[in-house]
Amino acid sequence: MTVTLADVAARARVSPATVSRVLNGNYPVAASTRERVLRAVDELDYVLNGPASALAAATSDLVGILVNDIADPFFGIMAGAAQHAIGEGAAGRAGGEKLAVVCNTGGSPERELTYLTLLQRQRAAAVVLTGGAVEDPGHTAAMAAKLAKLANAGTRIVLCGRPPVPGDAITAALTFDNRGGGRRLTEHLLTLGHRRIGYVAGPAERTTTRHRLEGHRAAMTAAGLGGDVERLTAHGTYDRRSGYDATLELLRREPDLTAIVAANDTVALGACAALRERGLRIPQDISVAGFDDLPFSVDVVPALTTVRLPLYEAGARAGRLAMGTEVPPPRGIATIGGELMVRSSTGRPRQR
Amino acid sequence: MTVTLADVAARARVSPATVSRVLNGNYPVAASTRERVLRAVDELDYVLNGPASALAAATSDLVGILVNDIADPFFGIMAGAAQHAIGEGAAGRAGGEKLAVVCNTGGSPERELTYLTLLQRQRAAAVVLTGGAVEDPGHTAAMAAKLAKLANAGTRIVLCGRPPVPGDAITAALTFDNRGGGRRLTEHLLTLGHRRIGYVAGPAERTTTRHRLEGHRAAMTAAGLGGDVERLTAHGTYDRRSGYDATLELLRREPDLTAIVAANDTVALGACAALRERGLRIPQDISVAGFDDLPFSVDVVPALTTVRLPLYEAGARAGRLAMGTEVPPPRGIATIGGELMVRSSTGRPRQR
DNA sequence: TCAGCGATAGAAAGCGCTTGCTACGGCGAT
DNA sequence: ATCGCCGTAGCAAGCGCTTTCTATCGCTGA
Question: Which of A84-93, B72-81, B115-124, B161-170 has the lowest average pLDDT?
Fold first, then answer.
């Protein structure tokens, strides 16, 4: 029925061991023999049995990339870059073909753990965790335990856009400077003269949310506006709908808002929609800023002021780290800064 | 080192066979025994060895979802929905836990084939192919051969948003009515009074591109405008940059364009940017339409007229089909229609 | 009372591959 | 000319799990 190594060996008139070695290319095989084997493989249209080889070799060529929301370009871009880097890296060395797959957790801690277990089952070669983590003590502990087990089994673990938990068995971590970016963004607004700034945050329990918010708060506090931050912050999810709803809520709490900072660009888009529906012009009546600088942000009207994160580069680097193609940064951790992109969605507040 | 089935068996004082049966739940095991085994599994923190079990059982729990561009929400939404459906479906029956993974081909035929081989290696339970296919005779033949082999090995094959090639060994196919959608969109423009309509198409060799364009052409031809279509069509990729460039090119060819139809919403966004840079107002000076109705399309200004495709529903259905949870449509093929969403980016052409 | 059956549990034979170790020529060195 | 080594190839022992076939035991029905 299915062609096996033995069939190829028989056809090439060599032992199965030799065929295996030709295929893996990690043992000297005479050129003539190799050629004969390769021809047999071709003629028989042989396809290696992954599970069998993974079982015997106690390793597999699977690399898992975990994302919170695959429909969100923020993750799509990083995952695509990582997958690309992993695919390319393989081209370099013989037999190093890796199957990079992305797993969508939907932001659920349970699913995250489930996928990790599934990858552990498959004896994955590496795992890349992208995006913010959920800050629940129970989950953090469970994750630490799981990661330790994976690392212990030889799986490389790379974080991308996710802060490392001290003690985590991590190969490398690439984290975004969400705090710094958030601070600079709000400082920009403050410099323009804004004082009543609303903040549409993401889910309260995520690290990304917290860090961006902390940056905002730091800037506000430094400007002597710390007292109002709490009241002018509304939490939601990282999607447009949430931005829309939260903006309306913020406007209810404080009708005189002159600016709104959103957790990310998608949320900012929802915020803009709500504002416009209220008859407010951007940026004449109210300024809006986002975060991430997703591809569409430069094209919307008015173009969004935001913090650009080098998502593609970070993803690609994470991919290489997962492949072991790139040396990890000192102490395994690298922080990637964001760049403030001032565009037309922010301006001076209206005099009143 | 690693805990194996035998360890669990020893601890539970039963045979490995029994442990296996408890874990797979497809053989009667006395409640007391089962409990003892489960306890041992828990105490030992045992994790099944995927490759070993796949080898022995000759099947695996991997399901591959192939997408052209993971950074594009069009694919992200479908893939997310499919992955969700597959994950949920598993919850239903015991032991049915599937690992749905998405593979990013980047639109490259070779990568598509490579991933299929890798999935074949892993003895994947099912494969979902999303998005348009490349129409190259050689590639089509190679794909057909590969799919036949996969199907032959028991892998379920589902197409989502991809037209089936007659003779393909497909389990089921969900295709979008790109032709009909394209036609209705252009008809809408025609009804508004437009006559000089530019078309920014996707890559020429993709089925999706061809079908949408055919719909456009059919509408134009029916209106007696078929002669100009060729000249007023510019091909590019499915991204914003392409929409931007192609729009400029179209304007060069025909400065008096009153409307532009884009291959999809992302491209339309790029087109809008180019138009605005040229000082043209939308829709007063020129109308713009997209396709897909991605989440951001309703939020941009002006809101985009487009054709809504039920991406989430289609992806979810594809996922269920891949799981074998849903019965395939008659003859395996179902066509999913698009809904014309008329919004503010299209209007009557200016009188001149 | 005893054959016979249903419900469970175990023994053991692989699944297809990798790899440590052994075997075997031919060659340069002594 | 002899020894030993290098370059190759084969042998065979698993890797950890599933599953068929067999064994056992407590009952039930005649």
Answer: A84-93
